Amino acid sequence: MRKIIVLSFITLDGVMQAPGGPEEDTSSGFKYGGWCAPYFAGADEAAGEFMAKQMKSADLLLGRKTFDIFAAYWPEHSDMWPGINDVTKYVMSKTMNKNKSDWKNIVFLKSVDDIKKLKNTEGTDIQVHGSGNMIQTLFKNDLVDEMWLKTFPIILGQGKKLFDEGTIPANFTLTDSLVTPNGVIFANYKRAGKVKTGTIGA
Predict the structure, then answer these.
(1) Which of 97, 103, 119, 190 has its CA 20 to 30 A from that of 156?
(2) Which positions ≥6 away from 78 have C-beta within 8 Å?
(3) To the nearest whole percent, how much of the chain has pLDDT over 90?
(4) pTM of the predicted model as reported, rounded to 2 decimal places
(5) Which residues contact residue 188 at a Cβ distance below 8 angstroms, ignoring those fewer than 6 apart?
């Protein structure tokens, strides 16, 4: 069985929309696109190594909007992400088909059942980047095995959030972490059963 790993840049208030650039996703009037870019200018060597490990060659699972962004950018910038053009890109879309994209190694999925079948195949881990709406579907169906989050010391007050409608109660365990000099927290978590409750001091 393959693991599904959600990778996301998020703010302190959980916003994940358009971290990479002003025009990445302006839906609902979002005006803070590119909010994480200033923090990379102060990233140290350890943060670079952490990011490099997370960008290792692995198949991708993408929502349609994120796929459109990736397909327009990464084929011409593969030097920044080695292997991105060679891995299989699974795209969740009920309307697109392989004839609508020139990017190679594309497989279109139509339903949650398709994702469940994909998890039960042999192969690499499956990474999910961006794809906010699809991530809600994954959370709702308890299909997220790990989360690799980069939390930035900024609050935006608006925008699409990583944990939104569809998120179910779930317990996770911290497996790796790093804090950069400019306050970005890298934290990897893996699924660890159901939520436990209790009384402090009892």
Answers:
(1) 190
(2) 84, 85
(3) 63
(4) 0.91
(5) 146, 147, 148, 149, 174, 175, 176, 177
